[in-house]
Amino acid sequence: MTTPVVAVRGASVTFGAVRALSGVDLEISAGEAVGLVGHNGAGKSTIVNVINGGLTPHEGSVSYGGMASGMTGVSAARAGGVRCVFQELSLCSNLSIVENARLMHAGLTGFGWRKRALALIETKLSEVFPGNRVDCSATVGTLSIAERQMVEIALNFLDVSGPPKLVILDEPTSSLDSALAEQMLAHVRKFVSGGGSVLLISHILGEILSTSTRIVVMKDGGVVAARPVSEFTGKSLVEAMGSVVREKTRTGVRTVLDTSPTVIDIPATPRTGLGLKARKGEVIGLAGLGGHGQTAMLLALFRERSSNWLPHRPDEIAFVAGDRALNGTFPLWSILRNLSVGNLGALSKRFSVHAANEDAVGAEWKQKTAIRTPDMHLPILSLSGGNQQKVLFARALSTPARIVLMDDPMRGVDIGTKQDVYSIIRAEAEAGRTFIWYSTEMDEICLCDRVYVFRDGAIVAELSGDEVSEHNVLAASFSGEAA
Amino acid sequence: MTIFNTALSKPWIWSWLAALATFVLTVLFTGGASTFSLGQATLTFAAFSVIVGLGQMLVITLGPGNVDLSVPATITLSGTLALKFMNTDASLILPGLLVAIGIGLGVGIANYGLIKLLRIPPIIATLSMSFLVQSLAIWSNRGLRIKPPDELSAFTTGMTLGIPNIAVVGLTLSVAIWWLLDRSIYGRWISAIGQSPFAARMAGIPVDGTRFLTYVICAVLAALCGYLLACFSGGAALNMGAEYLLMSIAVVVIGGSAVAGGNSNVPGIWGASLFMFLVVSMLNTYGFGAGIRLMLTGLIIIAVIIAASRRVSAR
Amino acid sequence: MKIKISADHIRLLIPLVSLAVLLVAVFWLQPRAMSYLGLNLLFNLAVPIALATIAQMLVIAVNDLDLSIGTFVSFAACVTAVYMPSTPLLGIFILAVAIAAYAFMGMIIHLRDLPSIVVTLGMSFVWGGLAVLILPSPGGQAPVWLRSMMTAQTPIIPFAIVASLVIGIVAHLIVMKSTLGVAIRGVGGNARSVSRAGWSVLRIKVAAYALSGFFSVLAGMALVGLTTSADANIALRYTLLSIAGVILGGGEFVGGRVSPIGAVVGALTLTLAGSFLSFLRISPDWQIGAQGAVLIVVLGLRLIFSRREA
């Protein structure tokens, strides 16, 4: 028995109230290809960040090869031969491929490093993707997305001062077509049979099943199954990812009458898949793995229905952001101002915001959504994440908007808040509002009247009524066992 | 005590305290001999900085990368053309004012037009525009120094109840801008855009429309300043706007408005403008030259910005 | 050999073509300009502007902006004119300290995450003040060696053009070819992945600012060599000109996309745009207007081409 390339022992990570990783053990030995699967929030990205040194676990340890376990961080991981192809492309797009290689590999020094790097990259690239037409002297910014991904993969397999020991591939084929993906997977198999090891994350189960030697299934921050690949099938993998115990019956499902007017109608196209239709008073769920086109769809819907030049008609559409820090709250403002910004027109007389009106609306929604604060004039950042989220909900619901778009707003929100908000959504829908709700949480998807499942930027399935179930959503999110 | 604490928590209080301290130091040196005239000169010159500073403040509120570099050129062009148009004729005072405002409108529209059409950062758009505008000013000026109409000249150098008329104009404009910033919907909008343009867009704010309006207001205020300044100094000069490029940004920063946008205040513009002039007169009184004065100004700006950054990180 | 015209090439091509067009127009209007002396006159003042543009470009490469270059170049010019002829060692020492101050400014900006515009704005007052202290009224003199260097009679091609070429090539080697240059542009492009690969972003930024200070000092010295004296306001226009030159030469404000050769070409184009008018017998009043117009036209062309490519 050799020492494993990387050993994670009892690792726990918490982000605020959310336990992203709870006591995970994971060892990867030389000559092993570990497939990692799990639905949104299972902890895949977190374990990747722990292994590549970007994140130090709050409990537990990581050790690389035979090295002393005291060393942690990015440099320790790199010294231990760990390389990582990140899900979001992480090359400098203003630099050439060769220059990116220089930044990534400290060993490329001395006179003539450009020539050496170019030769190394060209060899590696044609080794991984035979017959490719990538111009290795090009600037990354001029490459297509697929070419960038190919380059990033090749750069991480590069042997500059010692070959890589473990290559982490986080959705490496998301921009590659099937032929290129197969080439890459073939290279991974060759690399593994030559003694290297790989950690592969993919939403295409066929890739996992055909490439891994062992599959680790994660759920809710823990490992729920870790067995040799021969013991899995596509079907059993989907089942392992889901919750076995609670195949919940859906409560409160309503069928919105076909006669109620359609408020959104997007026709089906080859690029975007099935069309999307929403009726007055419906709660529509957008499901699928994160980043597969749901947010883009919501943004497009909003942009289409609001003006960038003239004051907005607030009775048309409102948006509830998910990533609060990035696109939701205004951090310099009070709670009240964050709430009222969506509907200032109605609170104003002659363009002047009427303080009494504003206070009244604030008090009304503070009570309705149970925002926990002594004073609505306190800064928004004095609130907990869940209460900030309630403010964003109140901002949208206090407008007379017919359509409310929600961009995974419940991420990291405590369960009490969630229940409060669910009942508000329900009541508002009864009153005739339409909700388009992108959610990464299965429980919420199961609350929707109708669900569209996204994969690779397109709508691949429409589920309504009793078809809305965890199993059906998972099956549609992960592309089939074929390939 | 609580009033004291509330006052100290205002970002503009420091510029006022600094202005007061400089005033006292200057008066102490002169033994109070010229306190009154010093006060009047300060109010007058500060008012010019205030008028441009208000516009620059609105632009800076829009967030990182938003700054109007065409301010000095607009000042020069508007002063030159307005005086030329009036040609010392008192009956043309109001139409002359309209000419100045029209120039402001034109520059503002052109500025935002360039930003949008060429999709370039505001800095480079207003920079190229300032080249064109400055050239236009040089061409129309032609070294001729046309005097303002006597009545206008008397107004701009005159007083009302012991307060310089220019200061009254500056104060009136400040109140108007304060209302815009603190009370109106527009003020909420620019503050939201300054904090996060994307979040502002998703909250239903017409981002482009608001930004457009802001650049126009800034240019109009600069044009207005040019009109008054040219009348005050008895004619337009080609370099009359030059010092207001850095000055307009400096009074915004020293006045406690957030450089990163989203949070601005009008009183700070006054405090900073008074302070900037008082530093000059203090150092003059103490016999220091322009060199020390400039260095001190620069160090103050840097100190303020470092202090402000500390405040943010402490939060 | 496939020839692929990328956006980068077009970016560099546009300023080159505009320079060529302007040059042809000048020659057509005034054939006598097509001589050794004529070219030297046309481009003489381009050398310090090109150096200042390179300095600005280094700061822009790390996604910052330097509003103090004009006063800093003036300061360097004053130091050169006052100290270099009589006490060269003191002069060199002062300039070295100034470069160190530049590097320190870069450090402060990075460590405290300050907006570079405001810090450099403040520094511009400081440099301006120092310049006035050193040289209260216009004067000083150029050291003999500097004067003879800047007025050197190079064979066949005028000195101004040779010097611009050398500046472009040296800057190209530093920024585009050296490892440090790769790191500097990498920070502009994606600072996160640079630090993820184990680099110190702080050191890279400090190096960029120090290099920028160095080129500004050279600009100040070159200016004194040409004008034989200095004053505290000698180069104030360089702040805006250098920004325009970088953008004209295909650089962008963010993303680390810069081109040293382009920046030099941009500086030459801006210089020529001014001279062009005097050949047209249009009053020099329009000189800066022409610079602005060239800037707008080039930016417009760039947009059209990049759209076509997309």
TrEMBL record, chain A:
Identify the InterPro entries for this entry.
AAA+_ATPase, ABC_carbohydrate_import_ATPase, ABC_transporter-like_ATP-bd, ABC_transporter-like_CS, P-loop_NTPase
Q: Which PANTHER family match?
A: CARBOHYDRATE TRANSPORT ATP-BINDING PROTEIN MG119-RELATED (PTHR43790), GALACTOFURANOSE TRANSPORTER ATP-BINDING PROTEIN YTFR (PTHR43790:SF9)
Q: Which organism is it from?
A: Rhizobium oryzicola
* Domain ABC transporter stretches: 6-245, 254-481
Protein name, per record: Sugar ABC transporter ATP-binding protein
Q: Pfam families given for it?
A: ABC_tran
Q: Name one GO molecular function term.
A: ATP binding
Q: What is the lineage of its organism?
A: Bacteria, Pseudomonadati, Pseudomonadota, Alphaproteobacteria, Hyphomicrobiales
Give a yes or no for keyword ATP-binding in this entry. Answer: yes
From TrEMBL, chain B:
What membrane topology does the annotation report for this chain? Multi-pass membrane protein
**Which keywords annotate this record?**
Cell inner membrane, Cell membrane, Membrane, Transmembrane, Transmembrane helix, Transport
Q: Where are the transmembrane segments?
A: 12-31, 43-63, 92-114, 120-140, 161-181, 212-232, 244-262, 268-287, 294-312
Q: Does the keyword section mention Ribosomal protein? A: no
Q: What broad class describes the main subcellular location of this protein?
A: membrane
Family matches, as InterPro entries: ABC_transp_permease
Question: Can you tell which superkingdom this protein's organism belongs to?
Answer: Bacteria
Query: Which one Pfam family would you cite for this protein?
Result: BPD_transp_2
The answer to whether UniProt assigns keyword Endoplasmic reticulum to this entry is no
- In which compartments does the protein localize? Cell membrane
Q: What is this protein called?
A: ABC transporter permease
Q: Which organism encodes this protein?
A: Rhizobium oryzicola
UniProtKB/TrEMBL annotation, chain C:
Q: Where in the cell is it found?
A: Cell membrane
Name the UniProt key words of this record, in alphabetical order: Cell inner membrane, Cell membrane, Membrane, Transmembrane, Transmembrane helix, Transport
- What is this entry's stated membrane topology? Multi-pass membrane protein
Primary location: membrane
Q: Name a Pfam family for this protein.
A: BPD_transp_2
Whether Cell inner membrane counts among this entry's keywords is: yes
Give TM segment ranges: 12-29, 41-60, 67-84, 90-109, 116-136, 156-175, 206-228, 234-254, 261-280, 286-305
Protein name in UniProt: ABC transporter permease
Q: What is the lineage of its organism?
A: Bacteria, Pseudomonadati, Pseudomonadota, Alphaproteobacteria, Hyphomicrobiales
